[in-house]
Amino acid sequence: MKKLLNDPGRVVVESLAGLAAAHPDLLEVDLGQRVVRRRGGTRPGKVGVVSGGGSGHEPLHAGYVGVGMLDAACCGEVFTSPVPDQFVAAHHAADGGAGVVHVLKNYTGDLLNAEMAHDILRAQDVDALEVVVTDDDVAVLDSTFTAGRRGVGATVLVEKLVGAAAEEGRDLAACAALGREVNARSRSMGVALTSCTVPSAGVATFALADDEIELGIGIHGEPGRRRAPLQPAHDVAAALLAPVVEDLALRRGEAVVVLLNGMGGTPLIELYLMFHEVRSILHETRGVTVARSLVGNYITSLEMAGCSVTLLRADDEIVRLWDAPVATPGLRWGA
Amino acid sequence: MKKLLNDPGRVVVESLAGLAAAHPDLLEVDLGQRVVRRRGGTRPGKVGVVSGGGSGHEPLHAGYVGVGMLDAACCGEVFTSPVPDQFVAAHHAADGGAGVVHVLKNYTGDLLNAEMAHDILRAQDVDALEVVVTDDDVAVLDSTFTAGRRGVGATVLVEKLVGAAAEEGRDLAACAALGREVNARSRSMGVALTSCTVPSAGVATFALADDEIELGIGIHGEPGRRRAPLQPAHDVAAALLAPVVEDLALRRGEAVVVLLNGMGGTPLIELYLMFHEVRSILHETRGVTVARSLVGNYITSLEMAGCSVTLLRADDEIVRLWDAPVATPGLRWGA
Amino acid sequence: MGSVRDDVADLTAFQSWIAETSAELDEHAGHLTELDRAIGDGDHGTNMARGFGRCAELAGEEQFPSIDAYLKKVGMTLVSTVGGASGPLYGTFFLRFAGPLAATDDAGVHALAQGLRAGVDGIVARGKAEVGDKTMYDTFAPALEAFDAAAVAGSPVAECLRACAEAADSGRDSTEPLVARKGRASYLGERSAGHLDPGASSAALLLRAAARTLA
Amino acid sequence: MGSVRDDVADLTAFQSWIAETSAELDEHAGHLTELDRAIGDGDHGTNMARGFGRCAELAGEEQFPSIDAYLKKVGMTLVSTVGGASGPLYGTFFLRFAGPLAATDDAGVHALAQGLRAGVDGIVARGKAEVGDKTMYDTFAPALEAFDAAAVAGSPVAECLRACAEAADSGRDSTEPLVARKGRASYLGERSAGHLDPGASSAALLLRAAARTLA
Ligand SMILES: Nc1ncnc2c1ncn2[C@@H]1O[C@H](COP(=O)(O)OP(=O)(O)O)[C@@H](O)[C@H]1O
Ligand SMILES: Nc1ncnc2c1ncn2[C@@H]1O[C@H](COP(=O)(O)OP(=O)(O)O)[C@@H](O)[C@H]1O
Ligand SMILES: [Mg+2]
Ligand SMILES: [Mg+2]
Ligand SMILES: [Mg+2]
Ligand SMILES: [Mg+2]
């Protein structure tokens, strides 16, 4: 394993210490609980927005704490959901008196730990709590034979848009409803060119031959749905888009927000190239317009090479909230 | 070679097409010349700021075109300096009537091509042209036995700060003087954990064993000054910092801007961890304060794993210009 | 058959169970993580070793007034340190296990059977797994049945626990051919077949340790 | 010794030179890039093949009134397509080469010697290299000397070019033990020794092609 770290057991806390030192203007970090909160806390009367999950997906989630996005985030070990105490602490850190929306990704571990946290919060007489679960990954069948679709790229979009709505002063129910709506309008699909190595495991999670790619990859280095031969970017883009466009039932003339997301080890030059392919296919083959886009490493899987495509069916309101100011380490414009 | 691309010969132009599509609000791309210019052009009377170099360092340079940074950039093939025609076209694209500063990195190819471009421009009666050459890499001895120190991380800082000065309305000479001053106050040192593969070459530029790192790496996949065993992040940080701090002759009580830069294949979780180490050493061992910092992939070497540290001796004026608004694909705040 | 006095597990025995499990997890963390790399995300061994490692320290740090107080603390500690899917599941197992033992300082066959059943019910309540889903429940379900069967037949604790551990091993092995329907492995569909489930494997290890320490 | 008429290079011969160089570069691009990977950045072969490939197309696209017009166009094309350090250097070589040939349609020994000298001087004017710096100049310098020596001795073009190409090969080989003092390889310090210089290698290939085509 070749990584810039000291002790595999201390990667998360040492990295959070760096995040805190790099962004003292935006956030504060409780290294004990590994909870990151917006500098100065949640504005009284504003709905709090919280997220949390395993680490290794940076900038998600801690890097999205700041104006216009999250009020607090809690960070589990690498690829391991936070424990209930952390969700509880993040909730309190984000509570400005108007309730808190928890954005969760649909994984058994995340949901079980969050559920226990919510039990604890309810026992503390905290009732103003809403949960939005993202499950946008079309690589996974959403059936009773699986744990349901995984939450991937849509999580970034939900956090941005719900963050903007909360900033505008929408109430708890409205923020939660928006989050669910954004998730329902989003689908994703990813591809890996290489695996990644969990620091505490020390070896790559899976192996790919030099001429193989893995289609339908998630964000935990877990193997995808099928192997395919290495192929031109155009064909990869088409393979990722087809199930996404179909599952969303996108029609000609519709507009989307596109997240062309790098998995961590793929350089920007390739991501922009892939975005060019994705946009061309959407425009020319599908008759779909790109209203807004985001190209870069936004929800990663350590140093995995590869990318994912997330499409969100757009409308004027979504575009307006998208354009609202955001100032976080990982996403920033207008502020 | 495992990359998301179609034809190695078309990587740059296809990636630029993606950049253009992703940031129509910020920039325009001339795909023929591979010149990126600020959307709407340079404000009349503002000094233009131009940069250019080989591709493969994204977001540098094209990703720094926008308000508060570059007016235009030209993009060579991967790791190959642009040709003179491109520098000429970028100059014209950036010319708002108040002259143009060219920010160049100190490499033989970049300087020779730019020189020929400047000959052409002078033949066109263009006189208001200043050149700032960055050469901040302490891994290379600056002697008559080398081509001089390489320009690396300081380039990002020069582009940001000169861009801010130009935006404020400073004249050509003042912008160029600032650029030279910022370069003179900056030093860098890098480390590679893996090599990278130039698309047209198809094989890794160099090979490193699983337990080896390369210290003193540049940004072109060129081998560094020496091999060393893989070591804890703390020791890597110390090894990078020592020559930088010494060459800058930093004294206790001084303040710096820190760029903790990823080489492209190292995830943010490790970069923040490295920043934590760098900052701790600066604070605790050297008595040096971090006034501002930037942690992420800012000047890369394709998918190389590793990082570099750049220190810029700060003062109030530098911090003020640093905080000025910037709105580019690669660097954005306050706008 | 041992004496009545011998045929019970006291607080010290429960503390040994946790210590023994922690030692076993330290030794087999790499293997469990390897299983999790194949059909999951490669953290199960580390998660379990971290959590039980912390639990093993409890006995030296605090005086526990009763078995159930100790087991509750173990459960809470697991919940607070393991994370992932297994944290709440193993945590709940111990939190619920404590319930039926509230009134006793020495857990005999009956108390153990009740505790085990409560713990396993807790896992199902949280995780909603059924037998054949390729989860830790595929280990716990037959193990619980075997314990009960031995208890009903009047076997002493040691024998009940031995039957339980053996059934656990078989349960673990039964997961190999299965296609996962719960947890992370379910994403793999058919490709999850041909691998042991990591949680089923750690559960077998926990119940083996019980057989060695609770009687 | 050939006839006077045979002992000159006309426009067609110069076009063959470029075509031949392009073909050779296509064939050896991988090797040149490999040399550049060892002590540079791994683009030299691609850069050269791209530039000369474009130059080789010129003859079919345009009628050139004279050798010098053609060589100027080759130089400009190289400048506009190669990039890196070698683009301006090879470009300048051809732009300057054209100068002494301005008045002639058939370049004989004297004109070639003058063109070669002007071209090599151009490389030095741009790159400031000295012999021993481990650059393409280590090929060009002895090659030029050998051409001149053969010309002074009254040898025909073919022989001058052969001597030139042979000296070029030796010049290229001389770069292997050298520590680079110019260009990207200089960053490596002592570690640059033990490798052929990529530019010195492409220069030898260019001059070999000249020997095969200009006489
Ligand atoms: N719904 C469930 N019910 C019971 N056990 C489950 C369930 N989901 C997952 N598991 C168990 O959890 C194990 C994985 O644990 P672990 O790797 O620690 O968590 P994660 O999957 O979050 O990384 C699986 O091998 C399986 O035995
Ligand atoms: N100052 C110089 N003078 C002459 N030749 C040089 C000089 N600098 C570099 N070169 C030549 O250029 C070659 C490298 O060319 P190339 O790889 O195309 O450019 P780059 O180094 O910019 O990637 C070197 O092998 C060397 O022969
Ligand atoms: Mg996990
Ligand atoms: Mg180059
Ligand atoms: Mg796991
Ligand atoms: Mg080169």
From TrEMBL, chains A, B:
Q: Which residues form a coiled coil?
A: none
InterPro entries assigned to the protein according to its UniProt record, in alphabetical order: DhaK_1 (IPR012736), DhaK_dom (IPR004006), Dihydroxyacetone_Kinase (IPR050861)
Q: Name the domain of life this protein comes from.
A: Bacteria
Span of domain DhaK? 7-333
Recorded hits in Gene3D superfamilies, A to Z, give:
Dihydroxyacetone kinase, domain 1 (3.40.50.10440), Dihydroxyacetone kinase, domain 2 (3.30.1180.20)
Q: Name one GO molecular function term.
A: kinase activity
Which keywords accompany this UniProt record? Kinase, Transferase
Q: What is this protein called?
A: Dihydroxyacetone kinase subunit DhaK
PANTHER family assigned to the protein according to its UniProt record, in alphabetical order: TRIOKINASE/FMN CYCLASE, TRIOKINASE_FMN CYCLASE
Q: Which Pfam families match?
A: Dak1
UniProtKB/TrEMBL annotation, chains C, D:
Q: Is Acetylation among this UniProt entry's keywords?
A: no
Q: Which Gene3D superfamilies match?
A: 1.25.40.340
Name all DhaL domain ranges. 12-212
Kinase: present as a keyword of the record?
Answer: yes
Molecular function (GO) terms listed? kinase activity
Q: Which UniProt keywords apply?
A: Kinase, Transferase
* PROSITE patterns the UniProt entry points to: DHAL
- A Pfam family that the UniProt record links to this protein: Dak2
Q: Which InterPro entries match?
A: DhaK_L_YcgS, DhaL_dom, DhaL_dom_sf, Dihydroxyacetone_Kinase
Entry's NCBIfam families?
dha_L_ycgS
- Protein name, UniProt field: Dihydroxyacetone kinase subunit L
Please give the organism. Answer: Ornithinimicrobium pekingense
